[in-house]
Amino acid sequence: MSNSILSGVKVIELATMVSGPYCGKLLGDLGADVVKVESPRGDPARECGPFPKTGADREKSALFLYVNTSKRGIVLDVEKPEGLDVLKRLIKWADVLIDNHSPKYLEGLGLPWKEVSSLNPALIYTSITPYGRTGPRANEDGDELTLIQAGGIGYLLPTRSEDISRPPVKMGGYAVGYYGALAAAVATMAALLLRRKTGKGQLIDISLQEVILAHVRGIAGARYHGVPWNRVPAVPPVMGRMKTSDGYILVAPFENHQWKAFVELMGNPEWVSGPEWDSMFYRGQHMFEIAPQIQDWMLRQKKEDLYHRGAQKGIPMGPINTVKDVLESQQYAARGYFVEVEHPKAGKYKYPGWPYQMSTTPARVSRPAPLLGQHNQEVLCSVLSYSEEEYQHLQRLGVINPLPEDRR
Q1: Tens place of pLDDT for every residue, the chain, 408 residues?
Q2: What is the pTM of this model?
Q3: Would residue 179 be called left, alpha or beta, if left means φ above 0 and alpha means ψ between -120 and 50 degrees?
Q4: Which residues does 339 contact at the CB level (< 8 Å), separation at least 6?
Q5: In angstroms, rounded to a whole number, what is the distance separating the alpha carbons of residues 145 and 166?
Q6: Is the Cβ–Cβ distance between 12 and 40 less than 8 Å?
Q7: Which CATH class is domain 240-320?
Q8: Concatenated DSSP letters for 278-299?
Q9: Domain layout of the chain by residue ranges
Q10: CB contact burial 134-173 (16+ within 10 A = b; e otherwise)
Q11: Is 11:34 a contact under the CB 8 Å cutoff?
């Protein structure tokens, strides 16, 4: 991949699940040489699935397969002295270390940032944690549910009056992990650019809570407009998810010009013709009065046709698509968004591609996600120059051996 933008960049990924691995995938798909380090039990993502057309199998988890493309993979028990020595040699070799464990994990192994930096002063250490490496919550755990709430988006999720007593919820899937990975990848790329000028590495401290908070608009409204920022609005909006004749569509014509365009789209009905409806404040207080009429009109529309007609008028709206809708989308097909990847055990599937296209240095999947421990010998012997005898010694010690399925 000589024409790849990150060709020659060496990355160690000591990370699990989504945030660290997806960051590594983004760098790997742009040409970086990413070596994924897994414990003998393997990345927990291997157990999460879903498992297309099969039962649970650590080599066939769709989540693991997707977020770990374009990487080599090794097994390493870093809690054994010999395994820790291997990790230190990897750190000396690498340009980037991606880690999404608690700060106290590597510190407990004798590898705080100061020691990591002394091993390789040019290393960029991208650390992804729930609340960052400093502050009173630095070593606290956090998952998708708690971080969605801690970051503020949880307050925006339930929007109907019947949800007021509903327990906290999270967004579907692993939104926190993916958002955090994007932030980490951008910061890592910027640090690589600076390193070209200075030759020095640095610590990148990613707080997943702050990543989510950065995507929340409610704080600005609460601060500057005096709008209460409650979990459920005092007057829930009519707009949002609405049912059409063949599914659902999201509609959000909040600005005055958007509302006027939406009224035109509905054919300027008499029940919404008064000048008072031109006021955003009035609409906020009286929208429920015309909710039945809007829904009746919506039920006579098809979501895709309505979306295109609305988009032409500049109305913020979009169909809620099923998986089938997404896979058969003419837009995605025209842009070649989905890419086929063949895995030696899982088989061939379509994977989501990238939200960007680069004319000179396009991203691509250079290899499927690694089998557990697939590149042990290649990395230790060819990259780190371990002899065959040393390699076999590590095997006898159980430092680089995957745990059998029945012991996991």
Answers
A1: 457 899 999 999 999 999 999 999 999 999 999 999 999 999 999 999 899 887 889 999 999 999 999 999 999 999 999 999 999 999 999 999 999 999 999 999 999 999 999 999 999 999 999 999 999 999 899 999 899 888 887 766 654 445 556 677 778 889 999 999 999 999 999 999 999 999 999 999 999 999 999 887 555 555 554 555 455 444 445 567 889 999 999 898 988 999 999 999 999 999 998 899 989 889 888 888 898 999 999 999 999 999 999 999 999 999 988 888 898 988 899 999 999 999 999 999 999 999 889 999 999 999 999 999 999 999 999 999 999 999 999 999 999 999 887 565
A2: 0.87
A3: alpha
A4: 350, 351, 353, 364, 365
A5: 14
A6: no
A7: alpha beta
A8: G-HHHHHHHGGGGHHHHHHHHT
A9: 10-214+336-407, 240-320
A10: eeeebeeebebebbbbbbbbbbbbbeeeeeeeeeeebbee
A11: yes
- Angle at CA 261, nearest 5°, toward 256 and 265? 145
Residue range 10-214+336-407, CATH number: 3.40.50.10540
Topology match between the domains 10-214+336-407 and 240-320: no
Cα pseudo-dihedral 136, 126, 83, 85, rounded to 10: -100
**Which of the 8 DSSP states describes residue 381?**
I
Position of tokens 């949002």? 240
Positive or negative CA dihedral for 165, 171, 174, 175?
negative
Q: Within 10 A of 330 (CB to CB), how many other CB atoms are there?
A: 8
Write the single-letter amino acid at 242: M
